[in-house]
Design goal:
It is a single chain. Helix 2 packs parallel to helix 9, helix 2 runs parallel beside helix 11 and helix 11 runs antiparallel to helix 12. This protein is an all-alpha fold. The radius of gyration is 22 Å and the shape is globular. The protein contains 12 helices and no strands. The protein starts with a helix and ends with a helix.
Length: 243
């Protein structure tokens, strides 16, 4: 084979490998959580933890990554359903300080869309039930058991407030809300059954095993080794159950 042909084959090989590398990198990028999602996770975990000094850094990072003011506000509002008013309100107050500081530095952050008015008809309990079915992919037809049978009022609160009042809001997608949810639950710790349920919801909504493993890496420096290990174990069990 002459030298010219060998050179041509070499060029073709190099070009093919370059295309493969670019395609592979693009596939990996598509498989990963985007920058906004990564920052929503960090903000939610830090809000639940209550480390307000560190939260300032997360909030700045989130704004720099392209999150709007209203998206961050919505994530902190959503967090209250899992970590309570005190943590959520302190998170909002910290966010106000961050925005004031950035404005003083000449940074004009994008406010973004506010939540649309909820015009859905029907009882909130029924609407919440429909949303929960969308999240889990499971029809709510079985007789209630466990805490729902022991304290039916809690079931009403969950359907009417959490899954209707909160999940019906449109500033964040269901996927984003679930990432916020598992971040908060992982951060508060010792709520593994609830974490397991929401990890299953994440998978049902189309988040991948790789993205949820990436989630573990994001929360680790915030929530510490013990809680990270607990969250990682729950994820491992959930993924095993899908095989």
């Amino acid at each position: 084979m002459n030298t010219g042909i060998l050179k041509a084959l070499g060029i073709i090989l190099i070009f093919s490998l370059s295309l493969f590398s670019i395609s592979n990198a693009q596939d990996m990028q598509r498989a990963a959580l985007n920058h906004k999602q990564q920052n929503l996770i960090a903000i939610a975990a830090q809000t639940a933890k209550g480390d307000l000094a560190a939260l300032k850094g997360n909030l700045n990072n989130g704004l720099d990554a392209g999150l709007t003011v209203n998206e961050i506000k919505e994530a902190i509002l959503h967090s209250y359903a899992y970590c309570g008013f005190p943590r959520s309100i302190r998170g909002l107050q910290t966010f106000m300080t961050v925005l004031d500081d950035r404005k003083a530095k000449g940074l004009n952050d994008v406010i973004g869309a506010d939540a649309s008015a909820i015009l859905a008809e029907g009882k909130k309990f029924d609407r919440g039930k429909v949303i929960l079915e969308k999240l889990t992919g499971v029809k709510e037809t079985e007789p209630k058991k466990g805490y729902a049978a022991f304290a039916p009022t809690m079931e009403i609160f969950l359907k009417e407030h959490l899954f209707a009042d909160i999940f019906e809001r449109d500033v964040l997608s269901f996927k984003d809300r679930e990432l916020v949810t598992i971040a908060v639950i992982s951060s508060i710790g010792f709520a593994e059954p609830m974490l397991r349920s929401h990890l299953n919801i994440c998978l049902n909504l189309g988040l991948t095993a790789q993205q949820l493993q990436q989630f573990i890496g994001i929360v680790k420096p915030i929530i510490g080794e013990e809680k990270t290990l607990a969250a990682a174990n729950e994820l491992s069990e959930v993924l095993k159950s899908k095989n």
